Each structure stands twice: as C-alpha cells, then as structure tokens.
C-alpha cells in the first residue's frame, strides 16, 4: 500500500521520520530547516510518499519536489534526501495543550503513529520537536 500525502513536511533524525503537519504558513518548512540544522535530513517538503513495509510506514521523498525545501521569502533550497520509518507526527497548532498527559495518535496507512501537538511560535520549537521524538516516537 502506498499514498502521497500533501501539505506535510517530513525529516529523518537518527533513522526515524518526523512528519510535520499543520495549516499553510504555520512554519512546517521552518521547523524542518531548524531540525536539519540539528542534524536531521529532509525527506519531503510540502508532501511525502508513504509506503507500508511490513509493520512499518516508511516515508520517502515525493517525486515532484524531491530534494527541494522552501525558505520563505528567499526561495527553494536543494538538499540531499533520506527515507525512514515514520516514528511521530508533529502537528503545529496554536491550540496545543501546555502540559498534555500523554499523546494522541494519527492513523497512517492503517497504522497508529504517535501524534504530538506543538505550539509553533517559539524559538525552541526544534528542541521541543526533538524531545517529542525521543519521548513519544516509535523506535
């Protein structure tokens, strides 16, 4: 089973994919760039291809924008890409709970993946995203 998901950005860190969702303009690409500055690799910006591989949902670059990430007000940057199993979905929302008890889940190709909502307007968003991967992401 395979699907192309639009309006999401995805990066790989330590062999695990973080799929970033949220409305247009909320900062998905900016978070991906900040995570890339912390060692992550781009999988896809503004879209990702998901494939079921055994029990895993694996994220790969979408063919139409492979290797391109938008830097708002600057242009498109060409970077190497990766592929990795999706370990967590990070939903950027201004309604994120300050101190949630646990995490929610997202259904990807019939498989439940942890979902953590993050408030987007903070200079520490990449640190929070990385902590969410370590605390709630699938191994």
How does this model look, in words?
- There is one protein chain.
- With 139 residues, the chain is an alpha+beta fold.
- The protein has a single domain, classed as P-loop containing nucleotide triphosphate hydrolases (Rossmann fold, 3-Layer(aba) Sandwich), CATH 3.40.50.300.
- Helix content is 16%, strand content 45%.
- The protein has 2 helices and 11 strands; from the N terminus they run E-E-E-H-E-E-E-E-E-E-E-E-H.
- The protein has helices at 28-37, 125-136; strands at residues 2-6, 9-13, 16-21, 41-44, 47-53, 56-60, 68-71, 75-78, 84-92, 104-108, 111-118.
- The strands form 2 sheets. Strands 1, 2, 3, 4, 5, 6, 9, 10 and 11 form a 9-stranded mixed β-sheet that branches.
- A hairpin with a 2-residue loop joins strand 5 and strand 6.
- The longest helix is centred in the last third of the chain and has 12 residues, at 125-136.
- One of its GO terms (molecular function) is ATP binding.
């Amino acid at each position: 089973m395979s699907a192309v998901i639009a309006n999401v950005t995805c990066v790989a860190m330590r062999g695990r994919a973080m799929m970033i969702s949220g409305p247009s303009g909320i900062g998905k690409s900016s978070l991906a760039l900040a995570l890339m500055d912390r060692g992550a690799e781009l999988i896809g910006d503004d879209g990702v291809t998901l494939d079921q591989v055994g029990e895993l949902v694996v994220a790969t670059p979408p063919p139409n924008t492979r290797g391109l990430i938008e830097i708002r007000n600057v242009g498109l940057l060409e970077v190497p890409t990766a592929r990795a199993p999706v370990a967590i979905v990070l939903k950027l929302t201004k309604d994120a709970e300050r101190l949630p008890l646990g995490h929610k889940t997202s259904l990807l190709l019939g498989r439940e993946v942890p979902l953590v909502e993050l408030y987007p307007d903070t200079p520490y968003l990449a640190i929070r995203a990385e902590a969410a991967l370590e605390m709630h992401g699938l191994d």
